[in-house]
Amino acid sequence: MAEGTLFVVATPIGNMEDMTFRAIETLKTADVIAAEDTRHTVKLLNHFEIKNKLMSFHEHSDVSRRDEILDMLRQGMKVALVSDAGTPLISDPGAELVAAAVQNGIRVIPIPGASAVVTALSASGLLKDGFVFEGFLPADNKARKAALLRIQSETRTMVLYEAPHRIEKTLEILKDTLGAERPMVLAREMTKVYEEFIRGSIGETLVRIKDKPLKGEMVLILAGAEKEEKIVTDEEITAELKSWMGKGKTKKDAVGLTASSLEILKNRVYQISLKL
């Protein structure tokens, strides 16, 4: 029996022209397409004249639907997993299915393409020292504030998703927890006709969207917190060096260990070590 394969297929986040040739071919040749919302995916398939069997697989699907797909894969079938838009599993369903396929020794092949996270980041102008993706915040206001307090001191760029009906309240909480002056970008309707990037501080963005009806899911890009400069005196470095050397470390090793433990440049420690 031929080996079954699960294809994780990225689809456009808006503009149909962002669909890749490989993704189209994969959907055309798949035995089954497992879709987050078949009513949504059928529009994509009709656009590219793809006529394949569709089945639903979403966050509310029970274990029996997952097992049904696994049985298909065990029988040697090719199953393509798609979400409503973008790359599956990124704040979309599918993680449990992919994990189960891997655990069962079934081949999983990603078909890369559009992703709202990467698209927004690439045009944000705020990407620095990596980024942290938080996805959708909890719906409960108290839990949402707790989640933001947890990342309050994060120095990397942060990416959040938010829905239109919650955006004003979320910005209010962001203002309270991260400060009104924190730089941010609100990206909406990306790759579509009314694509918009609202740039400014959290406070400025809140003023701009106040009482302004916004449509579509949004990506919020938040600048990371400023790194606090660590002040370490020469005396502290000397004491740390002597401590490591007193434990039997060579001067060379002590330099590396001191730089690491005090989180400072190795060259500065080396220069001080020359005086010992």
Work out the helicity level. Answer: 40-55%
Please tell me the total number of domains: 3
Number of helices: 11
Adjacency order of strands in the biggest sheet: 3-2-4-1-5
Shape: globular
Strand content: 15-25%
Whole-number average pLDDT? 92
- Helices and strands, in N-to-C order? EHEHEHEHEHEHEHEEHEHHH
The poorly predicted ranges are: none
Task: Calculate Rg over CA atoms.
Answer: 25 Å
CATH topology of the largest domain: the name is: Cobalt-precorrin-4 Transmethylase, domain 1
How far is the N terminus from the C terminus?
A: 72 Å
Helix/strand/pairing category: alpha/beta
Highest CATH level, the class of the largest domain: Alpha Beta
Explain what the structure shows.
By secondary structure, this protein is an alpha/beta fold. It folds into 3 domains: 5-114, Cobalt-precorrin-4 Transmethylase, domain 1 (3-Layer(aba) Sandwich); 117-222, Methyltransferase, Cobalt-precorrin-4 Transmethylase, Domain 2 (2-Layer Sandwich), CATH 3.30.950; 234-273. Helices cover 41% and strands 19% of the residues. The protein is built from 11 helices and 10 strands. It has helices spanning 21-29, 38-47, 63-74, 95-103, 116-124, 141-150, 167-178, 202-209, 234-246, 251-262, 266-273; strands spanning 5-9, 32-35, 53-56, 78-82, 107-111, 131-136, 157-162, 183-188, 196-201, 218-222. It has a 5-stranded parallel β-sheet, with helices on both faces. Strand 2 (32-35), helix 2 and strand 3 form a beta-alpha-beta unit. It is globular and about 75 Å long.
